[in-house]
Specification:
Length: 537
């Protein structure tokens, strides 16, 4: 039996920006339920929900205060259960985001830790350590937060005296949990059961590489080895996932884990995908890769080489809620992406970016394995680069002193129709959306694209339907074909060929090939620059 997750097209829903039913300007679960027919007709297999749990929203919901309840701004636990059931009736599976590396500083555990004396059991669930320096005034080590600044914050005890420091690899509002503590492990195993009993089909694991830390929490040092950092990819994390896999496998149906694993080498990432650990992981190498034939082929080859020994399926992703939307990336002079330097204000030729993004869609949907589609990818939405500073809410903007403008630009509410509040995102008469949409998005709405046979949305719907019919049943193999310089060309079994032209000159199509689907207009029997085509031989 081939498991569904080996080839699934999974659609990422950032709930706050998907659809607003109650009119408060923020997306909610009822809004998602209203749009389930749209998602079914799009042709995806599953929905991945970014965190919908109770949260102060210091980091867009990735600061969880209660893992067993829904944030009131999104709805209720009963509504989540209803959404899971209705999605299943539409033939859509449901994955929920699990955030195990850290919780919110408003989580009852952390509040109990702050209220408890030094050395108490309540503090052992986190990383509370004395500071260095004569009076403990310096952090316990030299670790830096992923979001900028020190990874440590010092507390003040109830009697007003300076206390120990606690670790937070992200914001101070997200204290890291101590995964050496048996109570932490037991708690998250129970959380898995809680959601599995409610019918979820799997979990996306946030910061999957970061749960375990090196014993003693040693300094990184002035010249760190990025493949051997003390706060990520430590051996103890694999025991956690082996235990979790046993839980998942104890439930009926084909449930799955997908890990967010940002690591320097394919070999490191593959260790998370051994048969008794996670089922798959995001392939960020493709997302970060420039629009270059040689570089992209290297990514594909390296991905297969890394996954083959552990028997895991590859995955392909072009954008998500943390990165620059690929329409904008592909229109830049430098089309690569680096989380450490997003170049948020780099100019972009969006006409070129959209042409390349359409070709990239056909490339990723033709490759063997699973594929992830971030909400709005199917509409060709660009990054919004001109949000005023006063509207920016991402903590990376503040933590970096304004050097990193954050991720708000890829989280703008979706445009559904040219009329209505916030382009149909909210009902008539509702509050304005929590982040404003550009005026020119009125031409990118779902409503307008459904009526356009040449739109991004039509391309995605057609490609997903053809993928399900013709490609999903095939073996997970491909054969490279030499189609000339600056091209990517490969065959799948059964006479299917994908050809991508990344050069500047048209590429002639094989005389005996039938065009199945093209990313844009052809020039007779030639594929224009920055275009892709599916062929039947």
């Amino acid at each position: 039996m081939t498991h569904w997750w080996r080839h699934a097209a999974i659609y990422q829903i950032y709930v706050r920006s998907f659809a607003d039913r109650d009119g408060d300007g923020e997306g909610d679960l009822a809004g998602v339920r209203d749009r389930l027919p749209y998602l079914r007709e799009l042709g995806v297999d599953a929905l991945w929900f970014t965190p919908w749990y109770t949260s102060p929203m210091a980091d867009g919901g990735y600061d969880v205060a209660d893992y067993r309840d829904i944030d009131p701004r999104f709805g209720s636990l009963a509504q989540a259960e209803q959404l899971i059931n209705e999605a299943h009736r539409h033939g859509l599976r449901v994955l929920v985001d699990l955030v195990p590396n850290h919780c919110s500083d408003q989580h009852p555990w952390f509040q109990q830790a702050l209220a408890s004396p030094p050395g108490s059991p309540e503090r052992e669930r986190f990383w509370f350590l004395p500071g260095r320096g004569e009076s403990g005034e310096l952090p316990p080590n030299d670790w830096q937060s992923y979001f900028g600044g020190d990874a440590w914050t010092r507390i003040t005890e109830a009697d007003g005296t300076p206390g120990p420091w606690y670790l937070h690899m992200f914001t101070p509002q997200q204290p890291d949990l101590n995964w050496e503590h048996p109570g932490v492990r037991a708690e998250f195993e129970d959380i898995l059961h809680f959601w599995l009993r409610r019918g979820v089909d799997g979990f996306r694991i946030d910061v999957a590489h970061g749960l375990a830390k090196k014993p003693g929490l040693p300094d990184v040092g002035p010249h760190p080895d990025v493949s051997d950092l003390p706060y990520q990819d430590c051996e103890g994390v694999h025991e956690i996932y082996r235990d979790w896999r046993k839980i998942l496998d104890s439930y009926e149906g084909s449930r799955t884990f997908v890990g967010e694993v940002w690591l320097p080498t394919a070999e490191q990432s593959a260790r998370y995908l051994r048969p008794d650990e996670l089922h798959s992981a995001f392939n960020f190498e493709l997302l970060c890769c420039p629009w270059d034939a040689t570089a992209l082929r290297t990514v594909v080859d390296d991905t297969f080489a890394g996954h083959l020994p552990v028997g895991a399926p590859p995955t392909w992703v072009l954008s998500n809620h943390d990165t620059i939307r690929h329409v904008t990336r592909y229109g830049r002079a430098d089309t690569s992406f680096d989380m450490g330097d997003k170049r948020l204000l780099d100019p972009s030729d969006l006409t070129l970016g959209r042409r390349r993004a359409r070709a990239a869609a056909l490339l990723t949907l033709a490759l063997p394995g699973g594929v992830y589609i971030y909400q709005g990818d199917e509409l060709g939405l660009p990054e919004v680069q001109d949000l005023p500073d006063v509207l920016l809410q991402d903590p990376t903007f503040v933590r970096s002193g304004g050097r990193d403008r954050g991720r708000d630009g890829c989280r703008i509410p979706l445009p559904w129709s040219a009329s209505g509040t916030s382009l149909g995102f909210s009902p008539d008469g509702a509050a304005e959306a929590w982040l404003p949409q550009p005026a020119d998005w009125s031409s990118l709405t779902v409503e307008s694209q459904l009526a356009d046979p040449d739109s991004f949305l039509t391309l995605y719907r057609t490609a997903l339907a053809l993928r399900a019919e013709r490609l999903v049943p095939l073996p997970e193999t491909l054969t490279w074909v030499d189609a000339g310089r600056d091209t990517l060309c490969f065959d799948r079994p059964g006479g299917f060929r994908c050809l991508v032209n990344l050069g500047t000159q048209p590429v002639t199509l094989p005389a005996d090939a039938t065009v199945v689907l093209a990313s844009g207009p052809l020039e007779g029997r030639a594929l224009p620059a920055d275009s892709a085509v599916w062929l039947h031989l």
